[in-house]
Design goal:
It comes from Larkinella arboricola. Keywords: Hydrolase. It holds the Pfam family Rhodanese. One of its GO terms (molecular function) is hydrolase activity. InterPro entries: GlpE_sulfurtransferase (IPR050229), Rhodanese-like_dom (IPR001763), Rhodanese-like_dom_sf (IPR036873). The protein has 143 residues and is α/β, with parallel strands linked by helices. The protein has 2 domains: 38 residues, no CATH class; 105 residues, Rhodanese-like domain (Oxidized Rhodanese, domain 1, 3-Layer(aba) Sandwich), CATH 3.40.250. Helix content is 29%, strand content 15%. Strands 3-7-6-4-5 form a 5-stranded parallel sheet. It starts with a strand and ends in an 8-residue tail after the last helix. The relative contact order is 0.18.
Length: 143
């Protein structure tokens, strides 16, 4: 379900299909008309992720495609493509804090919603993703 204006739906649908999400249920222009309360995303920045990634109680998940992951990723990250995330929930720990990221934030936002919907409680979204990580020269070289 998307929250967007009618004019944005075609573009958003195409963008979602590019990352493997092609079963959109519909859209609303104003969620207030549905009578539901929106949840907020637990966003973290580069400084915060640096303090968390080396901890044993944290799982870092890269939601980009395999080729993007192979080209470079944050050290210690596991690769689970966002388009296949619902089929691979068994790869995500329910006992650890899960930090997700992608290239620039869009796929991580979708991944965050999917994980929360499936009952994951401790998810953090590194919304700056690889764009921000590379900008700060913290790239793990391809190997």
């Amino acid at each position: 379900m998307l929250v967007a204006s009618r004019a944005q739906i075609e573009d958003f649908s195409r963008q979602l299909m590019r990352i493997g999400i092609d079963s959109m249920l519909g859209y609303v222009e104003d969620v207030n008309t549905l009578g539901i309360e929106l949840e907020t995303v637990n966003l973290i920045d580069t400084q915060t992720i640096e303090t968390l990634v080396s901890r044993n109680d944290v799982q870092l998940v890269d939601l980009r495609g395999a080729a993007e992951y192979k080209a470079g990723h944050i050290d210690g990250a596991e690769s689970v493509f966002v388009g296949t995330l619902p089929a691979h929930l068994d790869k995500i720990s329910r006992d650890k804090t899960v930090i997700i990221y992608c290239q620039g934030g869009d796929r991580a936002t979708i991944g965050y919603s999917l994980l929360i919907r499936h009952g994951f409680k401790t998810v953090k979204n590194y919304s700056g993703g690889m764009n921000e990580w590379v900008k700060n020269l913290k790239l793990e070289p391809a190997g």
